[in-house]
Structure formats: C-alpha cells, structure tokens
Design a protein that fits this description.
mainly alpha; 2% strand
Amino acid sequence: MRSRPAFYALSPGGWRDLVTLLHLPYTAWILSYVALGAAAAPTLHAERLLAALTAFALAVGVAAHALDELQGRPLQTHLSERALRWMAGVTLAAACAIGTAGALEVSPSLLGFVLVGAFLVAAYNLEWWGGRFHSDRWFALAWGGFPALTGFWVNALQMSLSAVLVTAACCAASVAQRRLSVPARQLRRRTTSVTGQQHMVNGRSIELSVARLASPLDGALAALSAAMPLLAGAMVAVRL
C-alpha cells in the first residue's frame, strides 16, 4: 500500500483534496510566525494582526500550496490544473489587495512587503530560475523570517532589536522544519521499501522499514506544528 504523501494528507478525491492542499498544520505553523512577530512589537494592533494573518492564510495556505501542487503533484490530489491556477491567482490577488489596503490605511511602507511576498510565493513554488529560490535558505527566509518580520512591521512600522531577534528565531524554526520534512517526504513519496536492521548494544535487532524511519520525523513535525501556534496564541493573548 502506498504511503500518504504527508502525515496530514487525506485519501485523494473530492473535498478531501482541498483539505490536503491547505497543508493545515504547516499553514498554522507559518501563521504563528506572523503572530509572534506582532507580539514582539512595542504596540500590538489586533485589527492589523488579523489582516496580516488573513493575507498570509490566502497567499501561503492556498496560493503557494496550489502552485506547489502544479509542480509534479507532490500531494497526489485530483484537482485539475485549471482549478489550481484559479485558486492560486484569486487568493494571491486577494492577499495583495489586503496588503494594498493596509498600505493606504496604515503606511505606504507595507507595499514593499506586498511585493516581496507575492514574489516569494511565485518564485519559490514555481521554482523560477531553475529552482534557485527553492532551497533551505530561501525556505527559512520566505516562510519563517518574512512572516515574522511582516507581523512586527505591520504593528511597529520600524525596526528594532526585538524585530531582528524574532525574525532570526523564526528562521531557525523553519530550518528545523525543513530538516525534518525533507527526509520525511523522501520516505513517504520517493521510497518504495527499506531493508536492513538496527543492531542494539544489548544484542537486540530491529527491522527497518519506511514506517519506522518516518514515524519520529512525522511525530516531531506534528508536535511542532501544534506547539508553535499554541505559543504564538499565548504570546498574543498576553499582549492583548
């Protein structure tokens, strides 16, 4: 039996494809970076945070993942290419509209974040320039540091040491996610079987398999994808 493409993936077909496409645990994880950035700002504006979370949910949760699914069907969904393109285009446009409205209402400086965000969604997920932006470094910057910095800037409209620290922390957390998710994906999506044994010092031998190797990776990813939103929620609750 073929393994699911991700620990949160549902069986292919119908509404289940839409749920799988959203990468809900990872989307929540990235949104937590936005919230952590906002919580680190001197003043936290609830309405600005809500707008930023909505924009990132659309741009990353839907648009980025729809574009990624166009590149070889990593999630094995049955969604048509036309549907994926429409989903990506409409939601990315909506996210940019939210950012543009924020720039008109709050500060023109937000337009820079809108442009950078739109570029990252397309460049990373469509693997522009031969996949130059589809790397560990750009994953950390695009899906860790950038959301945190945006959350901070939307509320503070200035840089500070706390902005640098929270951005660096979220970059590091994204590196951890990447280091866990890449081998997990290789096991789930590109490995047909694993053979061999693990020999313990007490003389016991453990049979290796895809499931045994993937289990601790998926377990860590699932735990972290729950912990980060809970931590971000706690920090925002304290500030509000």
